[in-house]
Amino acid sequence: MGGLIEIISKMSLLRCERGATAIEYGLILALITLAIISAVTNVADKTINMWGNVATEVINN
């Protein structure tokens, strides 16, 4: 009977590790997504300012 409990506990640990691995991959993906969004937002802000400066120069000249 002890062997059966041991096998069942090992099987449930494997499932837990798979779930934990999926969660870890999900967290990594979330961090990468946040980094991409932050970088794109930063570039967008600089680009908007650049085109604003171009428009101002065109209007003034």
UniProtKB/TrEMBL annotation:
Entry annotated with the keyword Membrane: yes
Keyword field: Membrane, Transmembrane, Transmembrane helix
Matches recorded under Pfam families: Flp_Fap
Transmembrane domains' residue ranges: 21-41
Protein name per UniProt: Pilus assembly protein Flp/PilA
Organism: Sphingobium vermicomposti
